[in-house]
Amino acid sequence: MLEVETPALLQHIAPESHIEPVACAAPSSGWLRSSPEACHKRLLAAGYGPLYEIARVFRAGESGARHNPEFTLLEWYRPGWSLDQLMQESVTLTAQILQCPADSASRFTYQRAFLKSGCPDPLNASTEEMRAVCAARRLPLPDETDREWLLDYLQTEIMEPWLAQQGGLILITHFPPQRAAMAKIDPGPPATALRFELYVDGVELANGYQELTDAAEQRARLEAANQTRITQKLAPLPIDENFLAALEAGMPECAGVALGLDRLLMRKLHAERIDQTLAFPYDRT
């Protein structure tokens, strides 16, 4: 596998409704990357791969027990691999580092994990039903929330603590299509995003996709993410035409995953907070 090194400072950055990039001085001066994904896919389209990078990445407003604005991702891509193959590799690598049996990993669909944890059905519940569950559990809510924000909130506040109670390695699969991000969609029925998340003791470590290769569909998703940002009163981000041109030229079928190394170290050390794994967390820089 080829180790690559890609830029941390970018002229363009993929808009995502739930991730705010770090702007450098002014938007015209670029952004610090929130992921090396777009650059990796441009390399894949140019014929490089399989490849990986240990990358420093940045996300604005992310701080807390499991977040630091600057953190380290291990991201890798496997041309010709299926999502199942990549899931198995991700579990095997994580299990080796944490010294636990890889065959102990459990699997839940996104819908089943929500329901088992006491959340409403994520595929069918209305925003009113989701807000009612939050109110019943006395979870604070802003006055205005959209469906995607509520799903993220329920996942963080209810589903992930339930996963922690289950313990061990857990794979979450079969995400709803609207949560596909840059993953392909299996038309089903029912339609599901070809995506997984890997948890250890309730801490999300990895997020993997059967990667979307259709440039037109990717453009539509980026534009939709910008519309969501506008609805959230955030500035839209310029579309990365170089990335879309690489998809148009022909990125190979592949699976890719990003794994948070700081969080992996948290679990290895049985630490409760990410700053216990960092010599210089942001609040001490």
Automatic annotation (TrEMBL):
Domain Aminoacyl-transfer RNA synthetases class-II family profile residues, every copy: 1-281
Keywords noted in UniProt: Aminoacyl-tRNA synthetase, ATP-binding, Ligase, Nucleotide-binding
InterPro entries for this protein: Aa-tRNA-synt_II, aa-tRNA-synth_II, aa-tRNA-synth_II/BPL/LPL, EpmA
Coiled coil: none
Record's keyword annotation contains ATP-binding: yes
Biological process per Gene Ontology, one example term: lysyl-tRNA aminoacylation
Superkingdom as given in the UniProt entry: Bacteria
Gene3D superfamilies according to UniProt: Bira Bifunctional Protein, Domain 2
Name of the molecule in the record: Putative tRNA synthetase
Species assigned in the record: Magnetofaba australis IT-1
